[in-house]
C-alpha cells in the first residue's frame, strides 16, 4: 500500500489567510517544572490544511461537528492543472477528460503548495465558479485544493468574490484548503479528511491522508 500525507505541519507563525488569527504554539506545562509536557495552541479554525463547513459562509449552514465521517473519506479523483500562472483562472476547459460521473471528493492539483509560506502563495490560481458547478453536476460534494482558497485571494482593498465557496458551501458541501502534495498522487486514490469536531464551529484543521 502507498500512503501520502497531504497535510502542512502546524507551526507558530505559519502562513494564514490574510486577516485570520495567527498560529501560536507555546509550552504550557514542562517536564522540568511540572513532570509533563503540554503545549498551548492558539489558532483560527482555518489554519493550515483545513476544511470549511457550510456555516463558514452560509447562515444556518452545518457546522463542523455536524459533518459525517462518511462524507469525508472514500474515493477521490485528482484533477491535475499544472503550469498555471499567478492568479490564473481555471475555467471549464479543465473538465475535458473528466468522466461524466465522479466520486464525491475531487482534488484540484495545481502544484501551488510548493510556495506555501511565501508571499507568492497568495497569488495562487483560482477556480471559475462554472468549473465548480460542472464538477458538482458530475457528483462532487467535497472540493479539495492545494491553494489558500478555491477563490481568488484579492489584493488588500480589493473586493473579494467567493463564488466557488458559494457554489460548494451553498449546496451543503465541504471545501478543503491548503492541501500538500496533490501533484504526487495518482488519478484516483482513497482519502481521509478528518477534522476536529469543534462544537458549533465553521471549520477545523485536518489531517489529510491518501492511499492506494
From TrEMBL:
PANTHER family xrefs: CYCLASE-LIKE PROTEIN 2, KYNURENINE FORMAMIDASE
Taxonomic lineage of the native organism: Bacteria, Bacillati, Actinomycetota, Actinomycetes, Micrococcales
UniProt record, GO biological process: L-tryptophan catabolic process to kynurenine
InterPro entries for the chain: KFase/CYL (IPR007325), KFase_sf (IPR037175)
Record GO terms (molecular function): arylformamidase activity
Organism annotation: Kineosphaera limosa NBRC 100340
Protein name per the record: Cyclase
SUPFAM superfamilies reported for this sequence: Putative cyclase (SSF102198)
Top-level taxon in the UniProt lineage: Bacteria
